[in-house]
Design brief:
The complex is a heterodimer of chains A (about 270) and B (about 300). Chain A has about 270 residues and is mainly alpha-helical. Chain A contains 13 helices and no strands. The chains are: A mainly alpha (about 270), B alpha/beta (about 300).
């Protein structure tokens, strides 16, 4: 555990030293500033004019929920896109000749090394996403004096979605030694494949073949469901009761399988 | 006791793929005693770095076995091993002392002992005033010295150095040599890969010559460089005018410069016969010694012989 923690910490340090992380952080800060300015333009008293008593508080709660709902999907998308971009090179940099030799010559197992890098990447994203979400949450609190804890769940759902896609980045990094493949695959899953598979019932209206429907369903179950986790996040923010956790379970299974495969390949690889 | 024991070690890259298959090491056997500085020599692509990487578990062997400090296949033994790879890359965002701290902690050093060890090694490598400078500003020589410091952080019993003096100026090389000789005095075993034959000759007790994955020769530096056939003779008069032609032909006596001659003896001859003849002729024998060959001469000759053998 000590070795994993050490590598995790130094991955965080590596991220802080890189421009891409600073860019990530700057975008987060800019988003917060933008939201702060927008918030300052909203006059709560004007919004509530004409509302009385209990209705007033309920209406205010509804306004806050709507704002959070309006924000959560762009924040989820922006957070994931930036996180993938910022973390995709951690593994390829570690695998560079002269660096990996040195690391593998130390009394640290390959599994510990890879897990340290994996958790390091997640920690980097968790910190940035936390700043963004907590920042927005604080602005809402200061503006409307409403404490909306469900909004903070987004920190964990976005980090979880990233963790699933990052496992794929780690696998492609271990196999190919470069960051492009992992980035492309992650973006493809997040932007194209996951939304398409989530809407497979619509696709089935056009594809009548039982065989192809089964193939699509198969891929739906084995691939990460970032699109549905996005919707699940919106539900959490709206304080709705979530009954179907299948997208989370199956995505987690994908994470475990892909990460295990990465470790297996890394263990066997010659450097 | 041996620090390194290698038996029948073979490494084949891309086995089963005829167009890509490369035999990097071929049934290599080698034992290196504790407290030795061993120099591994060989042309590019001989398999030197592959050998070190297999020993350290960075690359896996196809067959054969290795033992380091008496232990086979254990990454835990690496806490007693130091390694300086060729063209090492340190995280450029770290300072010199942070590099040592990171690799020291990874090596399993006691965290309380690390600051003191960093001070000691930075002073030893003459890097104290650069300790707070990011390594991206270090020169190649400074990087190399920092690399060596990194390899010594855990006070290892066995040290692998791949081109340790690469990019280091002559004074720095001398300092590194002195450090390594000092480590040898502490009974540490040092395994050096180097293209700089003169460096290996100056530092090592033993050397091995590797070519195309085959260990062609392994012995002490003295055995490698001593020529048991050729003598250098310093005298005060011209031998060719005094000694009989028969004797000159028999020992193939040749003048090198005024007063210095070379003579060759075969297994059936005795150099004393020549010495007796010189003294009987009232010639003053100022000096007689076995001619020492440079390691470079030996290396080139062994590699060329192997190439010729391979061509047959």
């Amino acid at each position: 555990m000590k070795n994993i923690w050490l590598i995790t910490l130094y991955t965080l340090r590596e991220a802080f030293s890189r421009k891409v992380f600073i860019a990530f952080f700057v975008v987060v800060v800019l988003a917060l500033v933008g939201f702060g300015i927008f918030g300052s333009l909203v006059k709560v008293d004007t919004l509530l004019k004409g509302l009385e008593g209990a209705d007033k508080q309920a209406a205010l709660n509804q306004i806050v929920y709507r704002i959070e709902l309006m924000l959560i999907s762009p924040v989820y998308g922006l957070g994931l896109l930036l996180a993938i971009f910022a973390s995709s090179s951690f593994i390829p940099v570690m695998l560079e000749k002269g660096n990996i030799d040195l690391l593998l010559s130390k009394p640290i197992s390959r599994t510990q090394l890879l897990l340290g890098k994996y958790f390091g990447g997640i920690l980097v994203v968790f910190i940035n996403i936390s700043i963004l979400i907590v920042g927005i949450w604080l602005i809402i609190f200061l503006k409307f004096s409403i404490i909306s804890f469900p909004f903070l769940f987004a920190i964990f759902t976005i980090t979880f979605s990233f963790a699933v896609l990052y496992a794929l980045i780690v696998l492609s990094g271990v196999i190919s030694g470069n960051s492009m493949l992992g980035m492309m695959l992650s973006y493809m899953i997040y932007l194209i494949i996951s939304p398409l598979l989530a809407s497979r019932s619509i696709i089935f209206q056009f594809i009548q073949s039982d065989f192809w429907q089964k193939i699509i369903t198969f891929f739906y179950y084995i691939l990460p469901k970032t699109s549905e986790i996005d919707k699940l996040t919106s539900g959490l923010v709206m304080n709705q009761t979530i009954t179907n956790f299948q997208p989370v379970y199956s995505s987690f299974l994908f994470l475990v399988v892909v990460l295990s495969l990465s470790i297996y390949i890394f263990e066997k690889k010659d450097f | 006791m041996y620090s390194i024991e290698i038996q029948e070690l073979t490494k084949i890259y891309s086995p089963g793929n005829p167009s890509k298959e490369v035999k990097a090491l071929n049934k290599l056997n080698l034992n290196i005693p504790q407290g030795t500085i061993f120099g591994l020599l060989g042309p590019n692509g001989a398999g030197k770095t592959t050998l070190i990487k297999i020993l350290l578990g960075i690359t896996y062997q196809t067959s054969g076995s290795v033992k380091l400090l008496g232990v086979e296949d254990s990454y835990q033994i690496k806490s007693r091993i130091g390694y300086l790879p060729e063209s090492h890359k340190f995280p450029l965002y770290l300072t010199g002392e942070e590099v040592l701290n990171f690799y020291g902690r990874l090596s399993g050093c006691d965290s309380k002992a690390i600051p003191g060890k960093i001070d000691e090694l930075l002073a030893m490598m003459d890097l104290t005033k650069w300790r707070k400078t990011k390594v991206k500003k270090y020169s190649k020589g400074m990087m190399q010295r920092l690399g060596l410091a990194q390899a010594l952080m855990n006070d290892p019993d066995l040290i692998f150095l791949d081109e340790p003096t690469d990019g280091v100026d002559p004074i720095g090389r001398k300092e590194i040599r002195d450090i390594l000789l000092n480590l040898k005095d502490q009974n540490k075993t040092i395994f050096i890969n180097s293209h700089l034959l003169s460096e290996v000759e100056l530092m090592s007790d033993r050397a091995g010559i590797l070519n195309k994955g085959n260990l062609l020769r392994e012995c002490s530096i003295a055995e490698l460089t001593t020529n048991n056939e050729e003598y250098v003779i310093h005298v005060d008069r011209a031998l060719e005018q005094i000694l009989s032609q028969t004797l000159i032909d028999e020992f193939k006596v040749k003048k090198s410069v005024e007063g210095v001659y070379s003579a060759f003896v075969t297994e059936t001859q005795n150099i004393n016969d020549l010495v007796d003849a010189i003294r009987n002729n009232q010639i003053t024998l100022k000096e007689i010694s076995l001619k020492k060959k440079s390691l470079e001469d030996v290396f080139i000759s062994i590699i060329q012989d192997a190439e010729k053998e391979g061509a047959k």
